[in-house]
């Protein structure tokens, strides 16, 4: 067997403050910090060549609990009735969103809702996800993405900066 990339990629945490990820070679232990903006934002998984000459696969770990305060306009649609409303997304994380509905149907915990909004980055990518309403408190709605496995890379990179 030639030296190969380990099948299981190594998962490395991202440092939000410095916007770097520190990779550690599983073969020799050498570490290197890489600025996130040097990485291809379309890839979550990438191969790294260490100075020891060996390669390994690495995988970025987006912190699911990291919550970013935002103010993004969007729409929501209650799946049970198809009624739609306007909302302002006020926080976003990889696990869900918090929003303030401004017009539209009332929401209850357990409701399934489609949300769509655009990120305020240069390319303004649209995020369209199904969420489950978790809690309501004084006009603030907390909602969780129903499918967190389908990690949204645009959202992931958005949360890193
Ligand atoms: Zn190495």
Helix content, binned percent: under 10%
Overall SS class: mainly beta
Number of domains: 2
Q: Biggest sheet: strands, sense, closure?
A: 6 strands, antiparallel, barrel
Fraction of residues in β-strands: over 45%
Secondary-structure topology with pairs:
Layout: E1 10-15, E2 20-24, E3 31-35, E4 45-49, E5 55-61, E6 68-78, E7 84-92, E8 96-103, E9 112-118, E10 126-137, E11 140-145, H1 153-160
Parallel strand pairs: 1-5
Antiparallel strand pairs: 1-2, 2-3, 4-5, 6-7, 6-9, 7-8, 8-11, 9-10, 10-11
The site of zinc ion has 7 residues, from loops.
Describe this structure in words.
This protein is mostly beta strands. The protein has 2 domains: 10-61, no CATH class; 68-160, Thrombin, subunit H (Beta Barrel). Helix content is 5%, strand content 50%. The protein contains 1 helix and 11 strands; from the N terminus they run βββββββββββα. It has one helix spanning 153-160; strands at residues 10-15, 20-24, 31-35, 45-49, 55-61, 68-78, 84-92, 96-103, 112-118, 126-137, 140-145. The strands form 2 sheets. A 6-stranded antiparallel barrel has the order 6-7-8-11-10-9. A hairpin with a 2-residue loop joins strand 10 and strand 11 (140-145). The chain is elongated. The chain starts with 9 loop residues before the first strand and ends with a helix. The structure holds zinc ion. Residues 25, 27-28, 30, 50, 52, 54 line the site of zinc ion.
